[in-house]
Amino acid sequence: MLHVREPRTLRKPAGKSKLTISDITADAVRLSAYEGHERIWLGRDNESGLTAIVAIHNTALGPALGGTRVWPHESFEAALTDALRLSRGMTYKSAIAGTAFGGGKAVIIADPKTEKTPSLLSSYADMLAALEGQFFTAEDVGLSLADADFLRTRAPNVVGTGSGSGNPSPVTAHGVFFGIKAALKHRRGTDSLKGIGVAVQGLGSVGWALCEKLHEDGAALTVTDIDTTRIEEAKRAFGATALAPDAILSAEADVFAPCALGGVLSRETIPSLKAEIVAGSANNQLARHEDARLLMEASILYAPDYVINAGGLINVAAELAPGGYDRAAAMARVAQIPKTLSDIFARAERQRRPTNEVTAEIAMERIKAAAAA
Ligand code: NAD
Q: Which keywords appear in this protein's UniProt record, sorted alphabetically (predicted)?
């Protein structure tokens, strides 16, 4: 059973750690991304170089669950905004996926290739342990399965580990793959991927696993990544066409699958899209919630990110189920993603509203009902 504590309380950081954890909720209120967060914690350790933000958005449905992102944001404010937007997205994602969790997310400001040292991760594990009962975490961009395993040795509130449900990325990719098929079915009446052009942005854990499935089903792939070795590998493995990172949005393709970072769909970029479907794993694909209307007006079908990419969340949440992790039960829930999307597409079309607006409405209804209960 989950042990849930009142969100304000904090365990004392362990041992001789130089880690300090402070509540920065009041400082974040001025940011537009703040939007009703319950609590925001900042962990700092000058010795290990840790600067970590844990944002807890809403716990009406349960304790906060969300990944930990390790990324060298250009400023503290950019990292905080990222954490706030991501944790809010997790609240909505959990509500739509029907898991008994609230929304939270962590961001560690560091370059995952050069600064993610064992001492930094140890320090972060101490922060997680101090937040036990109010925040559960797993992999995200920059945090691997090996890192999650390492954190789990020091903090009990880490899921998606080798001894638990494993890396969530393949499960996320599985959900995105079937989500793309649901979008094709809605738009074209057939979900066949034979000869369908898919432009994939980001060849990391999810993007790569997605490419494997798309390639196997006969899709024609156009790919990009900021890591050129990944591109070369994709050319060899999938016969993919390679594009520079800034050219992928305007790729000649039927489907654009953003699988890198957020904010790729904006007033500036949407007019250059050639695809008629946007369906990918990246969180916060829209720079602004309202930009989904531009997609609708351009007759581009948008699969809301937190619906299509919920596979990983569903899988790690299953690890915390009262009876323990049951892979078959988790995958059965992931298999609901295409149906959820189809219902959202149909409702949005009937009501002539952007798909993300309809989705947010459903999520809010569930959160409000839980808060009132
Ligand atoms: P990852 O770190 O393994 O991969 C991200 C990839 O994107 C990397 O290869 C990176 O080089 C590339 N990239 C970064 N900026 C880019 C740019 N501007 N253009 C092209 N490529 C760029 O991360 P991941 O786990 O595969 O996650 C990808 C996205 O999906 C993230 O937004 C993440 O939050 C989201 N997501 C992941 C999961 C999961 O289970 N891993 C679940 C839900 C959502």
A: NAD, Oxidoreductase
Q: In the chain, pLDDT over 70 holds for what percent of residues?
A: 96
| Ligand 1 lined by 300 (C-beta under 6 Å) | no
Is the shortest distance between the CB of 222 and ligand 1 below 6 Å?
Answer: no
Ligand 1 atom 33: residue of nearest CA? 282
Whole-model pTM: value is 0.93
Is 324 contained in some domain? no
* Cβ within 8 Å of residue 310, ≥6 positions away: 93, 96, 97, 172, 175, 334, 337
Q: Which of 144, 246, 150 is nearest to 199 (CA)?
A: 246
Q: In this structure, what token pair is assigned to residue 266?
A: 């904006």
Q: Which domain holds residue 59?
A: 4-90+100-152
Please report whether residue 144 resides in a domain.
Answer: yes
On the 0-12 / 13-18 / 19+ scale of CB atoms within 10 A, 266 is middle
pLDDT by residue (tens digit) across 60-72? 999 999 999 999 9
Domain CATH number, residue 130: 3.40.50.10860
From 143, 223, 281, 305, mutation site for ligand 1 pocket: most ligand atoms within 8 A of C-beta:
281
In a domain, 159, yes or no: no
Select from 154, 77, 153, 147 the least CA-distant residue to 109: 77
As a whole number, the mean pLDDT across the chain is 94
Q: Residue 163 is which amino acid?
A: S
For residue 5, pLDDT beyond 60: no
Q: What is the pLDDT of residues 309-335, one digit of tens each?
A: 999 999 999 999 989 999 999 999 999
For residues 188 and 107, membership in a common domain is answered with no
